[in-house]
TrEMBL record:
Organism in which the protein naturally occurs: Dreissena polymorpha
UniProt-listed InterPro entries: Homeodomain-like_sf, HTH_Psq
Record lineage: Eukaryota, Metazoa, Spiralia, Lophotrochozoa, Mollusca
Coiled-coil residues: none
Pfam family name, one: HTH_psq
Protein name, entry field: HTH psq-type domain-containing protein
Domain HTH psq-type, first and last residues per copy: 5-32
Top-rank lineage group of the source organism: Eukaryota
């Protein structure tokens, strides 16, 4: 924002905020949204959906039907498919 408001140069902003100069340039030219705070795609599940899935997995484990890693992946995939 300091660069957009003409308060600092890109180089000074990069040094002051400890951000790579190329990152600032990408954001200023619109290659990366200014609102993006982390790399990678957006999460598939909301926090509530993820919490519900985790709670189900924990409950099943407590009653003696724990899922294997592959079963957990399949369960999450099926859940994501039904939400889409």
């Amino acid at each position: 924002m300091a660069v957009k408001d003409n308060q600092m140069s890109i180089r000074k902003s990069a040094l002051y905020f400890n951000v790579p100069k190329t990152t600032l340039i990408d954001r200023l030219h619109g290659r990366i949204s200014i609102d993006t705070v982390k790399p990678g795609p957006d999460p598939l599940f909301t926090l509530d959906q993820e919490s519900l899935l985790a709670s189900h997995i924990q409950t099943m484990g407590e009653v003696g039907f724990g899922y294997t890693r592959q079963e957990t992946i399949n369960l999450a995939s099926d859940y994501a498919f039904t939400l889409a």
